[in-house]
Amino acid sequence: MCRWLAYSGTPIRLEELLYEPRFSLIDQSMHSRLGVETTNGDGVGVGWYGVDAPPLAEPALFRGTGPAWSDLNLRELARSTVSPLFLAHIRASTGTPVQQTNCHPFRHGNWLWLHNGCIREFARLKRDLVLAIDPALYPSIAGSTDSEVMFYLALTYGLRDRPALAVERMAGLVEYLGRAHGVENPLQMTVATTDGDRVWCFRYSSEGHSRSLFYSTEMSALVALYPENANLRRLSEETRLVVSEPLGELEGAWQPVPESSYGVIQKGDDELGRFEPVEP
């Protein structure tokens, strides 16, 4: 499987999360503690929005096929790039080739998407899933992963207008076709997607035992717990982080995302809701 993070808030250098924490995403590429695999070396990617980017601007994207821990280009980019909103991903392939077009995040217009998990027996379901994608979107598919097909199904089902419902419809189709093809528990996913303004995160699996996912405690509560921590004091109240596994051991900093749920990171109050697939 894979490890990922989604950050939104005070602009920071990418390396502050990718490299500097004790259990940074780069450290997790070699020593994952909660993932299915300890090592995630089948590619790395980061998508980010500029500090002064206009609304709905297309994000920048870096994707490499080598292990994250040895990617010197990523190291250079991370120490010099500042962003208020970015998604990052380290890949452990579930069977599709290690190539740039299969690395996350995936981008379409101003949207980014990343995924940890799988569509089980994807080869058996792929034809029916792909045929459900809007023909106008189909030419944009560049890779061969189940994750990218999930993204374009969500776009087909209205991701740009009603993101949570679109992902529920995508999940419902996967489960519907899984049963039709005799595939038990066809969907396992944690997903992050963003339009550059808000971030939606999802945790769901057909068997009800989804991959790990955590969100950061509100900044005001953390500052009250650790008033001497200068790094926390410089972050705004709007700052939020969602991760496959915690980046450190600061007590009280991380809360588990409930099973079968989704969250929205946005200006003002964030949201947490129940995720329920909608079948065709």
Automatic annotation (TrEMBL):
Top-level taxon of origin: Bacteria
Span list, region Disordered: 260-280
Keywords: Glutamine amidotransferase
Keyword RNA-binding assigned: no
Name the record gives this protein: Class II glutamine amidotransferase
Regions of compositional bias (Basic and acidic residues) in chain numbering: 267-280
PANTHER family hit by this protein: GLUTAMINE AMIDOTRANSFERASE DUG3-RELATED (PTHR43187:SF1)
Domain Glutamine amidotransferase type-2: 2-246
InterPro entries (alphabetical): EgtC-like (IPR026869), Gamma-glu_amide_hydrolase (IPR052373), GATase_2_dom (IPR017932), Ntn_hydrolases_N (IPR029055)
Secretion signal, residue range per the UniProt entry: none
UniProt keyword Repressor, yes or no: no
A Pfam family annotated for this UniProt entry: GATase_4
